[in-house]
Automatic annotation (TrEMBL):
It comes from the Bacteria. PANTHER family: FERREDOXIN-2, MITOCHONDRIAL (PTHR23426:SF65), FERREDOXIN/ADRENODOXIN (PTHR23426). It comes from Novipirellula herctigrandis. Coiled coil: none annotated. Its cofactor is [2Fe-2S] cluster. This is 2Fe-2S ferredoxin-5.
Length: 120
């Protein structure tokens, strides 16, 4: 099982193929934001990879990061990533201090929209 390390939070074993956003919220119990419900429409689910960043990304993620002007090395949308390998991330967008009333609507088990994979 892949190991997810969240800086300042801890280490967690995650079921293979689980979406990173769901692992962050369900397994690790973090207050990671996901305002659009994991559909790659916003950028509130951003994380910064410290180690284990996937080499591929969805076209939707690539387009959203560019459109929102948040393209930075290691910064990715957790709603568009599958936990296949060990990874270490830093939370970027959290409910605490955001002024939002909640983290966002629940995210589906599978990546939405249906992924078209490309190189990052």
């Amino acid at each position: 099982m892949p190991k997810l390390t969240i800086q300042g939070v801890g280490e967690f074993e995650i079921a293979p193929e689980k979406r990173l956003i769901n692992a962050l919220v369900e397994d690790a119990g973090t207050d990671q934001l996901h305002a659009c419900g994991g559909k790659s429409r916003c950028t509130t689910c951003r994380v910064k990879f410290v180690d284990g960043e996937p080499e591929s990304m969805t076209e939707a993620e690539k387009e959203t990061l560019k459109a929102k002007g948040v393209e930075q090395p290691g910064v990715r949308l957790s709603c568009q990533i599958v936990c296949d390998d060990d990874m270490t991330v830093e939370l970027v967008s959290r409910l605490e201090g955001s002024g939002r009333k909640d983290q966002g609507t629940p995210c589906a088990e599978d990546i939405e929209p249906p992924p078209s994979w490309t190189k990052k």
